[in-house]
Amino acid sequence: MIDIQILESPLNVQVCIDFVSGAATGGINVFVGSVRNQTRGKRVLYLEFEAYVPMAISEMRKIAETACSRFQIDRISIHHRTGRLEIGEIPVVIAVGAPHRQAAFEACQYAIDTLKQTVPIWKKEHFEDGEVWVAAHP
Amino acid sequence: MIDIQILESPLNVQVCIDFVSGAATGGINVFVGSVRNQTRGKRVLYLEFEAYVPMAISEMRKIAETACSRFQIDRISIHHRTGRLEIGEIPVVIAVGAPHRQAAFEACQYAIDTLKQTVPIWKKEHFEDGEVWVAAHP
Amino acid sequence: MKLTILAFGITRDILGASELNLELPESARIEDLKAELARRFPAFANLSALAIAVNSQYAELDLELKELDEVALIPPVSGG
Amino acid sequence: MKLTILAFGITRDILGASELNLELPESARIEDLKAELARRFPAFANLSALAIAVNSQYAELDLELKELDEVALIPPVSGG
Fold first, then answer.
1. Chains C and D touch (3+ CB pairs under 8 A)
2. Phi, psi of B133 (to 5 degrees)
3. What architecture (CATH level 2) is domain D2-74?
4. Which 8-state DSSP code applies to residue C64?
5. Rounded CA gap, B84 and B126, in Å?
6. In whole angstroms, what is the distance from residue D1 CA to residue D24 CA?
7. In whole angstroms, what is the distance from residue B112 CA to residue B134 CA?
């Protein structure tokens, strides 16, 4: 069971956990991103996330399907937020439910690592003295 | 920052996540245990967890302190429930907050693996035709 | 053929718009599109990478474009 | 010396009680306690393991017991 969402409103971790919980679930691993107050030693005011929504959903679904086929997992929920996020807010939640915990850990780690490499979502960091699209330049 | 609790009432995942969230937190990893409806192919009706509470808290605190010193993490919350748990209920929640996600994943995995080896808590599985203390016999 | 190109992140800043209408020869490939973009927008040379998506899938350089394709510029992603 | 032993999980079932009062010689060690338990409760031989905690810490076999120690039987744990 796969649940993929891109939302403009605050993410709800419990919704993701509920989705991946079932009677055969023995362990759930959850990754929750959090907007940090600094990056490379520089103070961050807030972030903005932009997504190419149909492709982002398609790539997130690929990750979920690969996770389900590669690891012994039943259920995965991936939610990503867009728009302006303040310090401490949550850009991403990935929850994975599995009969045994090791598969849940591995699938969750695979999902967040791959999401950061393939899903067309972009983060702009806003500083006191300017702004930058993360990773755009070498 | 370390938060250790043994509770007789249902665990609240969000409470653990809130504890490990801070302005310097970049990633949070959470493990949520879940009571399965079967074990080794046999239908489970419900579980009972019993703890030697003062020692269990002491061992959980050791795990948290070791996790903080061994991995680059800031905050860890470990909650374990006792008493009777129905299928789908949550015996344990471990949440770890860190500046970078990899440390959060590793510390969370370390914490649950070690908890299952050292913390004096015992699980009794109740079946239709009897009950068994898990791992008591070879 | 006429193509409408969607732009995101820094590529939208470079184009100064979220869409670009482009005229390309029939059976142009992704590599031709990238060359045309590089010619018209020298700032693309400063990016660490630039992928092109066609109909929501990452496209190889030799893929032939068709007029009804949804084409998008995908600068280095940074979600999560 | 008189010791009160706390029992949990299957050891509580074997003892039929959550506490056991035991008389041991002065300066008895953990290994002496385990031998006395094995003598009185043969079912302990069937356990996959049995640790002893003294004052909420896992104890080595050669630790000397003292009368005011809080001693607990720790059968194989299965939390989480």
1. no
2. -80, 120
3. Roll (3.10)
4. B
5. 10
6. 5
7. 17
**Does CATH place domain A2-135 in 3.30.450.20?**
no
For chain D, give the secondary structure using H, E and C: CEEEEEECHHHHHHHCCCEEEEECCCCCEHHHHHHHHHHHCHHHHHCCCCEEEECCEECCCCCECCCCCCEEEECCCCCC
**Domain regions of chain D by residue span:** 2-74
pLDDT in tens, B55-79: 999 999 999 999 999 999 999 999 9
How confident is the model over A123-137, as pLDDT tens digits?
999 999 999 999 999
* Cα–Cα distance, B62 to D35 (Å, whole number): 30
A87 has a pLDDT exceeding 90: yes
Is residue B24 less than 8 Å (CB to CB) from chain D? Answer: no
> How far, in Å, CA of A20 to CA of A15, rounded?
9
Alpha helical stretches, state H, B3-52:
13-20
Look at D79 and B80 and tell me if their CB atoms are within 8 Å.
Answer: yes
Burial profile A100-111: b = 16 or more Cβ within 10 angstroms, e = fewer: ebebbbbbbbbb
Total length of chain C: 80
Contact D13 B138 (CB under 8 A): no
Interface touch C77/A55, C-beta < 8 Å: no
Locate the domains of chain A by residue range: 2-135
* Contact residues on chain B for A27, CB-CB shorter than 8 A: 31-34
